[in-house]
UniProtKB/TrEMBL annotation:
Leader sequence segment: none
Reported function: Catalyzes the synthesis of activated sulfate.
Superkingdom of origin: Bacteria
Gene name of the encoded protein: cysC
Start and end residues of each APS kinase domain: 168-316
UniProt xrefs under InterPro entries: APS, APS_kinase_dom, DUF2061_membrane, P-loop_NTPase
Chain positions recorded as ATP binding sites: G175, L176, S177, G178, S179, G180, K181, S182
UniProt keyword list: ATP-binding, Kinase, Membrane, Nucleotide-binding, Phosphoprotein, Transferase, Transmembrane, Transmembrane helix
MF terms (GO), sorted A to Z: adenylylsulfate kinase activity
Provenance organism: Autumnicola edwardsiae
Main enzyme class: transferase
UniProt similarity note: Belongs to the APS kinase family.
Protein name as catalogued: Adenylyl-sulfate kinase
């Protein structure tokens, strides 16, 4: 859980105030023709706007709109709300200092355009910096790590497996959205279940509506999504279950982490190698269409990478391999693994 500290808001207030004040000074100078008056108006707003900006930041941290994935829309709305507050402050200050309400109105109106652009760029720049962002429970985590002692269970994985009559395994389907991962995964589980194998399915959309509903789609968040799923899978492995998992899993590093957590000896990788063109043609949810139009950001295959697995046990090309044949190929490998290890 990330926490945005007060010092980040203070630092943002200072950097923005430097930019905003310089803009106000030059605009006031240009409109009044008096550099001294421009300097007076610019310096006067330093104190008022520092306070107003800080309060504006603290208010927005409590507003959830666009917060989960930190979209550009959130930055745009923050830009608009701050501009309304800032422009009113500038207009009043320019009026008071110049004694002329027309000057106040002119300075306020002109700076709407310049500061809207500058503030938006300022927001985007700060979004790329981690300063003042930390794990909320950092201190608690340190204390917890020092006090954790894993429980030793009386019943072992081997005993659970013996009761079920087969060894545990994770069959991990990776591929682009629309490649056919879930379809194959469901059919494989059905066949195994009919043969008396204890199975459980994990699927990307289902996980994101529950356990991982608070995770977005940035590169870091995708990695955390896979890490959590791997830990859940590890628990199922310990229970002696055959896990059928269907996730895009686009990055090699995340797939390596996954194998380390569940154990390579418990892992069968299935690469559902369907071309991007075919996935877009299928696109029953219009996800690719939305990604192409910019409505969806960080979409794998469009503006986020998919690193094809080169070390998976099975590769299925759904454009040339019939579904029934693909299922049988997977079952041969899976059954050999869960039986030969008895």
């Amino acid at each position: 859980m990330k926490e945005v500290s007060h010092k980040r808001h203070i630092a943002k207030a200072i950097t923005w105030r430097c930019i905003g004040t310089l803009d106000t000074i030059f605009l006031s100078w240009f409109i009044t023709g008096d550099p001294f008056m421009g300097l007076q108006i610019g310096l006067a707003e330093v104190l008022t706007k520092m306070l107003l900006y800080y309060l504006h930041e603290r208010l927005w941290i409590r507003i959830n709109l666009g917060k989960q994935a930190i979209s550009q829309w959130r930055h745009i709305l923050k830009t608009i709300s701050w501009r309304l507050v800032g422009t009113l402050d500038t207009m009043l200050l320019a009026w008071i200092i110049s004694g002329n309400p027309v000057v106040g109105l002119k300075v306020g109106m002109v700076e709407v355009v310049t500061k809207m652009l500058l503030y938006y760029l300022h927001e985007r720049a700060w979004y790329k910096m981690d300063y003042g962002i930390k794990d909320r429970n950092t201190k608690e985590n340190i204390l917890t790590k020092n006090s954790i002692s894993p429980q030793e269970y009386t019943v072992s994985q081997e005993q659970r497996s013996a009761l079920k009559g087969h060894k545990p395994l994770v069959v991990w389907f990776s591929g682009l959205s629309g490649s056919g991962k879930s379809t194959l995964a469901n059919l494989v589980e059905k066949k195994l279940f009919e043969k008396g194998i204890h199975t459980y399915s994990l699927d990307g959309d289902n996980i994101r509506t529950g356990l991982n509903k608070n995770i977005g789609f940035t590169s870091e968040e995708r990695s955390e999504n896979i890490r959590r799923i791997a830990e859940v899978t590890k628990l199922f492995i310990d229970s002696g279950t055959v896990v059928i998992a269907a996730f895009i899993t686009p990055l090699k590093a995340d797939r390596e982490t996954l194998k380390q957590i569940v154990g390579e000896h418990n892992f069968v990788g299935v690469f559902v190698n369907t071309s991007l063109e075919e996935c877009e043609r299928r696109d029953v949810k219009d996800l690719y269409k939305k990604a192409r139009s910019g409505e969806i950001k960080n979409f794998t295959g469009i503006d986020a990478p998919y690193e094809k697995p080169v070390d998976f046990d099975i590769t299925i090309n759904t454009e040339s391999c019939p579904t029934e044949e693909a299922v049988e190929r997977i079952l041969v490998v899976v059954e050999r693994r869960i039986i030969s290890r008895k």
